[in-house]
Amino acid sequence: MSSRRVLIVGAGLAGSRCAETLRAGGFDGEVVLAGAEPVPPYERPALSKEHLAGEKDATAVELRPRSFWRQNGIELLLDRRVTAIDLGAHTAQTDVCEELGWDALVLATGARPQMLPGWNGPGVHMLRTLADSARLRAELGPGVRLSIVGAGFVGTEVASTALSLGASVTVVDMTNTPLERVLGTEVGAVLASRYLENGVDLRLGVGVDRLERGSGGRPRALALADGSEIAADVVVVAVGVRPEVDGLAAFGPTGIATDACGRTGIPGVYAAGDVARSWHPLLGRALRVEHWTSAAGQGGSVAHAILGDERPFEALPYFWSDQFGLRLQYVGHTESWTAVELDGEPGSFVARYHDGHGQPLAALAVNRPAELGRLRTALADALPERAALAA
Amino acid sequence: MSTFRIHIDRTLCSGFGSCAELAPQALEVGADGIAGVLVGETDDPAVLDAASSCPMAAITVEAVEEAA
To answer: CA–CA distance from A254 to each of A9, A43, A85, A257 (Å)?
Structure first.
């Protein structure tokens, strides 16, 4: 059956890559790409880096020139949020009182950052959208005291960029090393030294009690659980995201389950990107990842599935981060590992994550870009053996 | 037979490296971790797969008509 109208909800990377791939694959029905933000699809990784630094303006981060969408017959419906979906009637309602029909529905709504309860207010930022990045940029500069809650990728990248803009930066996290959940304490310790050398005030292994506000309701200080206080003019809360399933009542808060082609259990309904919890054939499990590569690949796989051409997304998860003069490139996926083997020196090293059988699970290359291919191949080669051990 | 002309936007490349795996005779990842073109033109259609596999959409492949 051919779909005449594809409605893509979410105009981020997964949604726009889906739209492009439909057209590249010869789809000649309607393609509607509906986005909650008022701007055309753009590259989100730049928001904590080049855009925040002022090196790339809003136009420079757009994924495609504006003329691209029209030329490819992709209808952009921007600045509207889908508020409800009727799976029986094949319609979606938006917050500007439209009713959009569809033959195929692609849910690519992404994720929403979490604010600490009661912290919303002037001078307190989250970073997810282009507008968020612009607002934060306007507050950063020499002499500004920035406190970041959360030593994950967003928090540490913002720390790096804010330092380059002349701000003094404190990073607070309950964990004992930065990026600990993903990279572990061994790598985290190496990175912590790097941050300290660059002048970051790291407050790790301690929780945040409350935000103290001064005049105009602006931040004055963070009170930490150990009784200490950090003076702060600007605060960034970077404590993670949750899948954006508002308006998608049929789907749970842990993400939308799909197969490797992005199909949900409902015929004609697909999901891709940060919101999707997709089966990964090589890893033999379902997982929700928030990486560029997965969003792009899943968006493409959904388009192919709509076209009747099954191309499951099965590339190994991959992400990168640029911070403090380091390029971190991570391939594979693991939430628990038995051993980490580091090889190199603090400014240039490889970390290999192994399970109890000595099998590789994931690898990190830090300023070792030429090794990434070999690391990825070694992981891909080891997967069948791991699957056999697990069976 | 078609000949393909390959272009890489090196400012977009994130060093994923799938292109060099799919079309190793035409593309490589250099010591800087950024993909580069080994041959400007090739008749190997593997470069089409290499381009579509790129997560950053950094590779464009143009079919060049052969002179008769």
So the answer is: 18, 24, 18, 9
